Amino acid sequence: MDLLVAYASMVGLLAQAQLDGRLHIRPARVVAASEPLTAPARQAVQAAWGESVVIDSYAATETASIASTCSQGGWHLCEDFVIVEPVTEDYRPVPVGVTADKVLVTVLFSRTLPLIRYELTDSIRLSEKRCACGLPFALLEAVEGRTEDTLSLAGLHGPVRVHPNVFHNTLEAVAPNGWQVEQQPSRLLVRLVAPAADPELVRRRILDALADLTIQTVAVDVVAVTAIERTRLGKTQLVKALPA
């Protein structure tokens, strides 16, 4: 097998199956798409198939690939395929190094359905650096998830926007088998795929992370589940905000 392309959450499961002896494939490259590739999943892939096989892909159904990683780990924009414009909520250009509220993309290769300045609710940040790999394409510094996955919680001085990265940074190390945070009217419900870390430890870690953002009054409940429900497209929605 030359190439394995899958949702990032499935890539980790396949790598673990390889390590357990239940799968016998040898891909030259593994492309993790559509979801964040967690640190434990990346380690499993590298243990199963080698250190240099993993490629992270940032893409959308409408545009195909927007950016992907190189041999040095840099996120290169596919500038020969798409024009990427990071903007604010009111569509003003965002400087390099500043996190955008959304992205406008123009697809250069599709003649059947041209897309010009098509809006994606993705929060990204461009980098000022150039990559040592030699590719001329601009670099992404961060892909912080979709705007609709950002929670709004009450802080000491008013509403606080909580990016999904807050939960990624807090939970990935202690819940390697999977997690999900759902905002409900009176609490945050955190689902952990068992076996996982001590629920009380997880609850305290989340409360500490929120307290750093001046959020101190939210209730957090942690429950163990056998699996995280996937969307109709097969993705795992890690952070579920209240409907607008």
Properties at a glance:
244 residues; alpha/beta; 7-stranded mixed beta sheet; GMP Synthetase, Chain A, domain 3
What does this structure look like?
The structure is a single chain. The strands form four sheets. A seven-stranded mixed β-sheet has the order 1-2-3-4-5-10-9. The chain has a four-stranded mixed β-sheet with strand order 15-14-13-16, with helices on one face. The protein has a domain at 150-240: GMP Synthetase, Chain A, domain 3 (2-Layer Sandwich). α1 (8-20) crosses α2 (39-49) and α3 (164-171) packs across α4 (199-211). The model has no long low-confidence stretch (mean pLDDT 84). The chain is globular, with a radius of gyration of 19 Å. The protein has helices at 8-20, 39-49, 164-171, 199-211; strands at residues 3-7, 29-33, 54-60, 64-69, 75-77, 82-87, 102-107, 118-120, 122-126, 139-146, 151-155, 158-162, 179-184, 187-193, 220-225, 239-240. It is α/β, with parallel strands linked by helices and 244 residues long. It has four helices and 16 strands.
Sheet having the most strands: 7 strands, mixed
Strand content bin: 25-35%
CATH class assignment of the domain at 150-240: Alpha Beta
Q: N-to-C terminal Cα separation, in Å?
A: 44 Å
What's the order of the H and E elements? EHEHEEEEEEEEEEHEEHEE
Count of runs of 4 or more consecutive helical residues: 4
Structural class: alpha/beta
Radius of gyration: 19 Å
Give the low-confidence spans: none
CATH fold-type name of the domain at 150-240: GMP Synthetase, Chain A, domain 3
Mean pLDDT value: 84
Helical residue percent?
Answer: 10-25%
- Give the tally of β-strands: 16
Biggest sheet, strands in spatial order?
1-2-3-4-5-10-9
Described by the principal axes of the CA atoms, the overall outline is globular
The second-level CATH architecture of the domain at 150-240 is 2-Layer Sandwich
